[in-house]
Amino acid sequence: MDLNSASTVVLQVLTQATSQDTAVLKPAEEQLKQWETQPGFYSVLLNIFTNHSLDVNVRWLAVLYFKNGIDRYWRRVAPHALSEEEKSTLRAGLITNFNEPVNQIATQISVLIAKVARVDCPRQWPELIPTLVESVKVQDDLQQHRALLTFYHVTKTLASKRLAADRKLFYDLTSSIYSFACSLWNHHTDTFLQQICTGDEAAAANSLERTLLSLKVLRKLTVHGFVEPHWNAEVMGFLHAVFERLKQFLECSRRVRAESICRDRLEKTIILFTKVLLDFLDQHPCSFTALIQRSLEFSVSYVFTEAGEGVVFEQFIVQCMNLIKMIVKNYAYKPSKNIEDSSPETLEAHKIKTAFFTYPTLMEICRRLVTHYFLLTKEELTMWEEDPESFTVEETGGDSWKYSLRPCMEVLFIDIFHEYNQTLTPVLLEMVHNLQGSTNVEDTNAILIKDAVYNAVGLAAYELFDSVDFDQWFKNQLLAELQVSHDRYKPIRRRVIWLIGQWISVKFKSDLRPVLYEAIRNLLQDRDLVVSINNYLGIYLQSVVFFLNVCLPVDDFEFRTDQFLPYLESMFTLLFQLLQEVTQCDTKMHVLHVLSCVIERVNMQIRPYVGCLVQYLPLLWKQSEEHNMLRCAILTTLIHLVQGLGADSKNLYPFLLPVIQLSTDVSQPPHVYLLEDGLELW
């Protein structure tokens, strides 16, 4: 492809490919696809997307085609691979200058340079890193930023390579540029701090962006660029400096207004500092030993004392809790039963942990977790009132503990309580003792504290096995609290039924189950407890959410069908009513799961009560056409229904046969989700 004659033609076709008219768009895309394997095509694309006078959309498309071409044709062994001569020209052209004015295009160029570097750097492209290092030193703001952005993407890509030879190359690269990366980060960080102090927000925002990028580079180099980083003084110096910088940035956050252009980027930088520590701990736990004391002091100070008031934000709290959790739970810091088999690093880490987690420290962490972090927030209570289905789904599913505050703090509590249960058990039992008897329904704070304490007792159920007589507590306290009908007592009723669900597989006498079934049925059917349908659903859903754990736990060998049968009709009817009333797919799936387990438990004895469900499932199947996971739940329910109905299931064949046909038809996309259950139903 001759560059001079081809550039005009390719530019014209790219312009057509940005059209909204499919009659123009489709032929252009076909032509571009044909050119993908033509020699010289990517040189033309390079000339087009580096020409800043052309239309942005055309340049954007040229970058994307170039990037996709790297994936398909850059490697020597690829079919229709680019020639070495053209690749050499392209490599030189990509790093001729870093002056792309459009952010989105600049990012794509950086990514495609990193893709080339993954294959060619450093052997075929030794000049890449030196060029980037020199370019980030220039005074021109735009060129400096674009070079730093590319430096980050290249570092990130090279750090991700896992073959031994590639790892060795990255170690060598890191040793050659680490000092420069540290000085670059320090320079931009100091510049930002000076500018924010003088109130120059526009300049500070630019410096903060460079601080963030240089820190991202250092994160990859520090975590992946050394075999034994604790022997490198610069690495350990940087990691210790992270704590000081974190304090400086947290103090900055006090002065930066919420609407400031720096605010969002400032919080991202603070989180990135914590990610450096978390990643280093994850990859190099032994090297992290020297940082354990400082990490614990820093995290506990900001999360569990007044030092963090006014400066911490939710994601920062999550990161600090994750740091504490990873240190507490890290197997590299736990000595073997035979001390002589433990490494010196393990013994040293264990010694540091033991010295830090004294009784006063553990007690304060436990109390603060339970009486501060565990409390339901106004936002959560409002969500429960306004959208109980979403609240229930979030409570039972939720996000990963690494990213969301509530699951994160609960996991931290479980891990600390497990590790230091002899110390913390008396602390938690004292909290329980102080809450004996019913709570004043007018005292919202007292209700929320009781909810939080009961939450803690449920999370620590296995650790408290020998310390709590749960049967007596159920009879003397919890059962009475389930019967308090005031609307403001709703959080306690919800929490008590959850608490029983946590304990039933730990310690709960079989003889008490009929009393429990009765209490649950009352919760499910008493619509007069509340005034609005949303409130009713809030109680109803929360009861059903824990119904399975309480009444029908999967590993429950003490379940007796004869105890449950007197409640079967009413429970099944109430569950079916809920299945019809709820609207969210996740909620319907959960209720169907409970119904399936009920049918499985009682088997043939379900026959008198399933007529309404049998009539409703075809409608639900039709409504769930776009929700394959809900259809999986329907299939599971049908499997148990067929088993329970026995020969009577023939009446379902007009519905079952098309369902089986769709589920087992491998030419239909849903079979990926439905095939296994469909075959079992068949």
TrEMBL record:
Subcellular location: Cytoplasm; Nucleus
Record SUPFAM superfamilies: ARM repeat (SSF48371)
Gene Ontology CC: cytosol; nuclear envelope
rRNA-binding found in the keyword field: no
GO molecular function list: small GTPase binding
UniProt keyword Cytoplasm present: yes
Domain Importin N-terminal: 28-100
Annotated InterPro entries: ARM-like (IPR011989), ARM-type_fold (IPR016024), Importin-beta_N (IPR001494), TPR_IPO7/11-like (IPR058669)
A GO biological process held by the record: protein import into nucleus
Record keywords, A-Z: Acetylation, Cytoplasm, Nucleus, Phosphoprotein, Protein transport, Repeat, Transport
Recorded family membership: Belongs to the importin beta family.
Subunit: Interacts with UBE2E3 and RPL12.
Name of the protein in question: Importin-11
Source organism: Calcarius ornatus (Chestnut-collared longspur)
